[in-house]
From TrEMBL:
NCBIfam families: PRK05808.1 (NF004474), PRK07530.1 (NF005715)
Entry protein name: 3-hydroxybutyryl-CoA dehydrogenase
Source species, domain of life: Bacteria
Positions of the record's site feature: Important for catalytic activity: H146
Positions contributing to NAD(+) binding: G16, A17, G18, Q19, M20, G21, D39, E98, K103, S125, N149, K280
Length: 297
C-alpha cells in the first residue's frame, strides 16, 4: 500500500530517469511513496527500471530487503514519456540534464499541469534555485533537493532554500527527505551550494594537476585515497559524477563568483568536447571497457 508521506505527500514525481532520477525513484518507492518517473527518452526509462531492479535485487541478496518489499516497491513506480502523468503528484523532483534551458522548459510545461499546492524541487548540482524558482508560478513552493550519487547508498540530501521558499515548503521537503531515510544539510542559495562548492574545485585541481604532468592518473588518485583518506580518488570520482556535470558546475562557480580560481581546467573541457564523460560514456579518465577499469594515460 502506498503510505501517506509527510504533510500530505504521497505521490512523488521524478523528471529525468538518468543516474540520479532512477536512484531517487528507487528510494522514494522503498519508503512507501507512489512514484511517477518521466523522461523524454523511453530507452532511459527502460534502463532505469532495469537498474532499480538490479539494485533492489542486490539489497535482497544482502538481506536488507525482503523480496516481497522489492516487488511492492517496483509496482509503486509508474514510468512514461508524457508529462501529464505528473498531474496528481504532491511534489515533483526534477533530475534532468544539468542545462538551464532544459530545466526551464520542463518547469514551464509542468507548472501548467500541477495542482496549485504541489511542490517543485530541483536536484540541480549548481544552477541557482532562486533563478529557477522565479521562472515558475510557485517560487514559494520551489526548493533545491540535492541528492548524492548513488542515491540508494549516500545518506545526504542538501536542501537549498531559494530566496522566496516558504517555511512550509522547507518543512515538507525536510520531512520527505527524512522519510526517505536521508539526513539533510541546509544550504543557502549561492553558487554550487555546500558539497559541490568544496568538492568540484578539488576535482578540477586534480585535472589541472594531471594536465601539468605533476602526476599521472593512478598517482593522483592514489595520493588522495592513501594520503588524504578519501574513499575514491578525485579522477575516479569525476568519472563517476560525469565530466559534463563537473564542467557545468565549474562554469557556474566561475561565472557566479567571478573569481579566476574557479576557472575550469582546459583538460576537463577537452575531455567533455571529446565525449569522454566518464562511466556513463564508457571512457573518462579511466577506460571502462576493461575490467578492472584502466587509467587512460
Ligand atoms: P543523466 O545524464 O544521467 O540523466 C539525465 C536524464 O534527463 C536523461 O535520462 C535525459 O533523457 C533526461 N532528460 C533530458 N531532458 C529532459 C526533458 N526535457 N524531460 C525529461 N527528461 C529529460 O544525468 P544525472 O547525472 O542523473 O543528473 C541529473 C541531474 O542531477 C542534473 O541536474 C545533475 O546536475 C544532478 N546531479 C547529478 C549528480 C551526479 O553525481 N551525476 C549528483 C547530484 C545531482
Amino acid at each position: 500500500m502506498a503510505g501517506s508521506g509527510p504533510r500530505g505527500i504521497s505521490t512523488v514525481g521524478v523528471i529525468g530517469a538518468g543516474q540520479m532520477g532512477n536512484g531517487i525513484a528507487h528510494v522514494a518507492a522503498l519508503s512507501g511513496l507512489s512514484v511517477v518517473l518521466v523522461d523524454v527518452n523511453q530507452a532511459a526509462l527502460d534502463k532505469a527500471r532495469a537498474t532499480m531492479t538490479k539494485n533492489m535485487d542486490r539489497q535482497v541478496a544482502k538481506g536488507s530487503l525482503k523480496a516481497e518489499e522489492k516487488d511492492a516497491a517496483l509496482a509503486r513506480i509508474a514510468t512514461g514519456t508524457e508529462m501529464p502523468m505528473l498531474a496528481e503528484c504532491d511534489i515533483v523532483i526534477e533530475a534532468a540534464t544539468e542545462r538551464e534551458e532544459v530545466k526551464l522548459s520542463i518547469f514551464r510545461d509542468v507548472c501548467k499541469l500541477l495542482k496549485k499546492e504541489a511542490i517543485l524541487a530541483s536536484n540541480t548540482s549548481s544552477i541557482p534555485i532562486t533563478r529557477l524558482a522565479a521562472a515558475t508560478d510557485r517560487p514559494d513552493r520551489f526548493i533545491g533537493m540535492h541528492f548524492m550519487n548513488p542515491v540508494p547508498v549516500m545518506k545526504l540530501v542538501e536542501v537549498i532554500r531559494g530566496i522566496a521558499t516558504s517555511e512550509e515548503t522547507f518543512d515538507a521537503v525536510a520531512s520527505l527527505a527524512w522519510k526517505m531515510g536521508k539526513i539533510t544539510a541546509v544550504a543557502q542559495d549561492y553558487p554550487a551550494f555546500i558539497v559541490n562548492r568544496i568538492l568540484v574545485p578539488m576535482i578540477n585541481e586534480a585535472v589541472q594537476t594531471l594536465q601539468e604532468g605533476v602526476g599521472d592518473i593512478r598517482s593522483i588518485d592514489a595520493a588522495m585515497k592513501l594520503g588524504a583518506n578519501h574513499p575514491m580518488g578525485p579522477l575516479e570520482l569525476a568519472d563517476f559524477i560525469g565530466l559534463d556535470t563537473c564542467l557545468a558546475i565549474m562554469r557556474v562557480l566561475h561565472e557566479g563568483m567571478g573569481d579566476s580560481k574557479y576557472r575550469p581546467s582546459p583538460l576537463l573541457v577537452k575531455y567533455v568536447e571529446a565525449g569522454w564523460l566518464g562511466r556513463k560514456s564508457g571512457r573518462g579518465f579511466y577506460d571502462y571497457s576493461q575490467e578492472p577499469p584502466a587509467p587512460t594515460r
